[in-house]
Amino acid sequence: MKRDISGLLLLLVMPAALIIVMALVQDAPFRDYQELKFTMLLSDNDHGSLARQITDGLKHSKNFQVTDSIDGNPVNDNQLKQLLNKGEYKIGIVIPAGVTAEIVNSANIVVNDISKKAGITATMPIREMREQMYVRLYFDPVSKPAFRTAIGSALDKYITFSCTNILMQRLSMLSKGSSDNDTANKNDLRKIMQGIGVKEEPLNDRGKNMLHINSVQHNVPAWAIFGMFFIVIPIAGHIIREREDGSALRVALIPNTTLYVTLGKIIFYTLICVFQFMLMLCIGLWAMPWFGLPALYPGLHSWLLLPISLSIGFAATAYGFFTGTVFRTITQALPFGSVSIVMWSAIGGIWVPIEILPKSMQHLALVSPLHWSLEAINDVILRNGDVNNVLLPVSVLLFTGAALWVASIIISNKQQQSI
Amino acid sequence: MGLLGPNGAGKTTTINILCGLVKPDSGSAQISGQDCIKDIAHIRYIIGMVPQQIALFGNLTARENFTYIGRLYGLDSVTINNRSKNLLERLGLEKQADKRINAYSGGMKRRANIIASLLHEPELLILDEPTAGVDVQSRAMILQFLKEYRGQNKTILYTSHLMDEAEQICDEVVIIDEGRFIIEGTPQTLIKNTPNCKRLEDVFLHYTGHIVRDGLQ
């Protein structure tokens, strides 16, 4: 058994890891969104009782974990939008100033009406009812429609509950002097109940130009990345074959060439990945409509997809070199390469958006190069991001590629020494 | 110079140390006064190594292999073409130069392997059992080529199990065993000075014994 530890790892550890990862990843889709807990950013501009009730209700709910201050300071509207735009949070809610006053005014109108019909002279202060006010709801543009709908409905439930509470408080004040509650104006009641609605708004002007995520916007980049990483298989096979047939030895015997030859291969394979990505992009742009699907929206800064695809290609190529270096035979390298890519893709949000994965899996996603690849592309095609937005994921991909390449060189030198 | 020894004597390890493929556990090695670790880049320009393994790209033709390898040595196309043409003729591969290495017989691969190591015209040619597993004709051609090459005032370091080969082409032989130097001299001197020996093989057996050695890779 000691003679083929890699084989044993492939046979036993790999499927075990695959089962765990896939079970975790597929857990969320098997549950309703209502069963999951989401972190929500909240900006309270009202500071009234309605805002307090909404905030408390959300904080005590099993669906939301509310963040209303960062570093001890209350979250403001701009900060909220920025954090959502960066993808650091998935949901944001802004309670506008004056919502409590508005709901109280509406309740007072009803109470005064009831008082009048009951012959009570005391009236509560009122003013003209304003146009409907909205608690504004923001989403990371990557969020799927079903997710948005589920969150919107849950939030609407809390707001309606809070409005009803305020109305009931006012009515209870009145009920001490009159038993004629049935005379309440039904239209005004409806107005109160609808007085504060929930409305989803785009994060910024860029957002007005973009599409909501759809099958094409998710699947074209996601599976293009998956395909790019599958270059690991031919590269690993190629590295092992060169080692077996002696051509790697020939290159090693020629002075000052190993680095250049390896660099040449990395450039070549990276360019193949870029070509592959561009081809998939063309399919998304022009072939998808033939099948009755929407065309891919490439974002306002679509040129960024070129450097992004270069960084993804580099990371994928270096991963192939690493796999080909670590494993001694093609029989070991190929299953590892394919299964590991499936796992990285599952962890990285290619199959299922990571926001609905368990917290532990969301943290684990950060080590998947496919996650950073998808983040970079989503920054461009979903968030209309610019250079600043893609710097982090692109840097992570370049660093990953460089680290894997250096590791391959070190391992290769050690293997050479143990001849 | 023939480097002779039974299986596991350390012939290939010695060659790998000289080529900078393996670092010695202790001690040092030099070629033309250059250290085989510190000055390995320069050493690799002055040596041509023919490994036991066929160190060529199987999917490329012989000519493509030589062009690629020549370019890696920094040679221009004209030089590569001239040298490879000359070597292909001398080793009987000129008609097969545009066929893929994977399609070659064992003997052809061995000959192409030698050509690839000679393109940069090294001062020292190191051959690790260049005739292992080849047919009689190829073996004869390789040995004839090596004799001619030696005649051009070039140095050859050569390892083999075949004592008759060593006797034919080596001016001097070194016998090593278990990683240690045993004896060196011209084949004739060694035969003459070793009791009851008529051939180099007798000398070899005299110093390394008759017990079968099963070398480990």
Mean of all residue-level pLDDT scores of chain B? 89
Silhouette of chain A: elongated
Uncertain stretches of 5 or more adjacent residues of chain B: none
Which H/E pattern describes the elements of chain B? EHEEHEHHHEHEHEEHH
Indicate the percent of residues in helices of chain A.
55-70%
Give the N-terminus to C-terminus distance of chain B in angstroms: 24 Å
Main sheet strand line-up of chain B: 4-5-6-1-7-8
Label the structural class of chain B: alpha/beta
User: What structural class should be given to the helix and strand makeup of chain A?
Assistant: alpha/beta
What sequence of helices (H) and strands (E) makes up the elements of chain A?
HEHEEEHEHEHHEHHHHHHHHHH
Q: Count every beta strand of chain B, where a strand is a DSSP E run of 2 or more residues.
A: 8
Helix content of chain B: 40-55%
Average pLDDT of chain A works out at 80
Oligomer: heterodimer
Please work out how many helical segments of chain B DSSP would assign. Answer: 9
Describe the protein's architecture and organization:
The complex is a heterodimer of chains A (419) and B (217). Chain A contains 16 helices and seven strands. Chain A is of the alpha/beta class and 419 residues long. In chain A, helix 2 (49-60) packs across helix 5. Chain B has one domain (2-208): Rossmann fold, CATH 3.40.50.300. In chain B, the strands form two sheets. A six-stranded mixed beta sheet of chain B has the order 4-5-6-1-7-8, with helices on both faces. By secondary structure, chain B is an alpha/beta fold. The relative contact order of chain B is 0.17. The model of chain B has no long low-confidence stretch (mean pLDDT 89). In chain B, helix 3 (62-72) packs across helix 4 and helix 5 packs parallel to helix 6 (136-151). Chain B contains nine helices and eight strands. Classes of the chains: A alpha/beta (419), B alpha/beta (217). At the A-B interface, helix 10 of A face helix 2 of B.
